[in-house]
Amino acid sequence: MRIGDLAHETGVSRRLLRYYEEQGLLRPVRLPNGYREYHQSDVATVRHIRDLLAAGLPTAVIARLLDCVHDDEGGRMVPVACPGMITHLRRERQRITETIERLQTSQRHLDTMLAAVRNPTQPPARTTAERRRRAPIVGQNRAL
Amino acid sequence: MRIGDLAHETGVSRRLLRYYEEQGLLRPVRLPNGYREYHQSDVATVRHIRDLLAAGLPTAVIARLLDCVHDDEGGRMVPVACPGMITHLRRERQRITETIERLQTSQRHLDTMLAAVRNPTQPPARTTAERRRRAPIVGQNRAL
DNA sequence: CTAAAGCGTCACATCCATGTGAGGGTCAAG
DNA sequence: CTTGACCCTCACATGGATGTGACGCTTTAG
């Protein structure tokens, strides 16, 4: 498949697909006319890339991951030459775990907010000073 | 507390604290000499902001969230004037949920990789074409 | 054959969270 | 009074993921 097809199937712009290649995340074969020819499995790879990007991993890291292990057609993973990779993989996994935890913390925050909005608890006895501290600032009116 | 203290207590640079204010995420009081005076609870707020940023929410969205509900000293949430906010909160919560799911997908990917690296499975009968498709590309040697 | 659709490269633009530094006040300690 | 530690504003820089557009070649449909 060519870049347009892949873009269509993944919802990722051609520009980005070229960018990913530049970053070493994709290695499409080149047809004699210079066109990029993608393999069917690249659809999965791109989705994978997007997941990892959404995970906050920079392309450089993703490149290293994909470089050592690539998607097979059956969604299987095939290990390639990758010394010290296990350590690396584990480290990244840990990073993601931490990110997930931060997100869950945020969700708890949001839930607390939702609960508060739903049944407003009159907070007991705050001082006037406290009440004033979020007062509007003069000269600040940013467009939303 | 002043900006230096807050920076120290949160590990966030002064620059960023000013930036957050500019984005409407913090509203420190101004002392007569122009210095920003932060409330103790801003420490928690900043942590909260960082979590949400790490969650991938842009400052504009975070501003709207904080704008309608702010941290009390006891970690409680106090709802302020916020029409249609519940919907908004829910939408963001949903977004975060999706992000978490993508991260978990990525983790499964990593786990699969780890398993593969650990006990390499000889993938059965791939065609030569398939095997060739990740062959090195001429003219590509990017510095890592 | 011709036009449209796709592709390629190059390069500049944008957004957002951050960094960095210049130039200049404020304030407390010596 | 002076020095050093903070603070302020302004403004330009950067890095990473993306967008956009120019210009030209290739392939495909009519």
Structural summary, described in words:
Chain A is mainly α and 144 residues long. Chain A has a domain at 3-84: Multidrug-efflux Transporter Regulator, Chain: A, Domain 2, CATH 1.10.1660. Chain A is 55% helix and 7% strand. The first copy, chain A, has 6 helices and 4 strands. In chain A, strands 1-2 form a two-stranded antiparallel sheet. Chain A has a two-stranded antiparallel sheet with strand order 3-4. In chain A, strand 1 (29-30) and strand 2 (36-37) form a beta hairpin. Chain A starts with a helix and ends in a 12-residue tail after the last helix. The model of chain A is unreliable at 124-144 (pLDDT under 50). Chains A and B meet through strand 1, helix 3, helix 4, strand 4 and helix 5 of A and strand 1, helix 3, helix 4, strand 4 and helix 5 of B. The structure holds a DNA duplex (30 and 30 nucleotides). Chains A, B: Residues 119-144 are annotated as: Disordered. Chains A, B: InterPro entries: DNA-bd_dom_put_sf (IPR009061), MerR-type_HTH_dom (IPR000551), MerR_fam (IPR047057). Chains A, B: This is MerR family transcriptional regulator. Chains A, B: It comes from Nonomuraea turkmeniaca.
Distinctive features:
homodimer; 144 residues; mainly alpha; Multidrug-efflux Transporter Regulator, Chain: A, Domain 2; two-stranded antiparallel sheet; two-stranded antiparallel ribbon; 6 helices; 4 strands; flat; DNA-binding; MerR-type_HTH_dom (chains A, B); MerR_fam (chains A, B)
